[in-house]
Design brief:
By secondary structure, this protein is mainly alpha-helical. It is built from five helices and two strands. It has two domains: about 80 residues; about 40 residues, no CATH class. Strand 1 and strand 2 form a beta hairpin.
Length: about 130
């Protein structure tokens, strides 16, 4: 798996509460309609208060989902930038340099490492050093 594949964003990486938020929106909409069509002023006021409260909860839920997703995207972008900086530093290094993830999968090899270790059957560090 290449570095680009590891840092791509997938929709499954971002679980959200959008289904429950849209349910809140639907209930708020029904409460607002009930508040508009009823003739009882006390019931109408109560339904309008419920509708406004649920609309606020809906808005806060959607904003929170957006904030969480944006934070995850920024985190991935920072990781990509850091890896890019490390790659640019060791790209033309005369010594062999390998960049791996925590599991030992090789993410990047500079030219000296490619000349020394390639071809390898696997992208794991143990395969390159055996």
């Amino acid at each position: 798996m290449s570095l680009t594949d590891q840092t791509k964003l997938n929709k499954s990486d971002f679980p959200s509460n959008s289904a429950s938020a849209w349910l809140l929106f639907l209930i708020a909409f029904v409460a607002a309609l009930l508040g508009l069509i009823t003739t009882d002023s006390l019931f109408s006021s109560g339904m309008n208060i419920v509708a406004i409260t649920l609309f606020c909860f809906f808005a806060l839920t959607m904003l929170n989902d957006f904030r969480i997703e944006r934070a995850k995207i920024v985190k991935v972008e920072e990781k990509q930038n850091l890896i890019g900086c490390v790659q640019s530093i060791v790209m033309h290094e005369p010594d062999s340099a390998l960049l791996t993830d925590l599991d030992g999968e090789i993410l990047f090899m500079n030219e000296a490492a490619k000349e020394r270790f390639l071809p390898i059957e696997d992208t794991h560090l143990s395969a390159a050093l055996s």
